[in-house]
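Sequence in, structure out. Go.
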Amino acid sequence: MKFYSFFSFVLCFSLVAVNQSCVQEASAMKIDQEIDIFFDEHQNEDASSALNLGGFALNLTLGDKDNKFESLRMLSFESDKMPSKKKIAELKKSLEKKPMVLLGNLKDKDQTIEFHGIESEGNLRNVVMTLESDEKFLLLQVKGKFSKEALNKLDLDIEGLDMYEDLL
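Output:
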């Protein structure tokens, strides 16, 4: 009888763990959908500049088989073409939902830089950076499964970030 109780406990614990994982994965997919909607709505007409790189180009550049980048996307807006404050606030609110966590932020004068991401098994799966000021808004997303070190190897020259290079 004790064996059956122990077996039942292990089975229930396993089901709870699997359910937790499924809920977390569903939440991550919803966040991705919200970010995708923002990119879709703004990349063609509003953005001052847009960049889309596939994982193949990123993986080839880094030459690291342990890290698998899926994509890198960036939208940059100048003051005259920025999305509404409401749209930006909605996007940033979606970045605050679990399993996404705030990895770090920097505030300097009139601009704020925030890094959000999903950590899983010691790796990052999705990193989103926002840079916001009165004159510009930048959204950068890197997807895949990669280490923090591999992310640091990506050499992106983004105006406004060069002064923070040592901190990042």
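Check: The chain has four helices and six strands. The CA atoms of residues 62 and 84 lie 36 Å apart.
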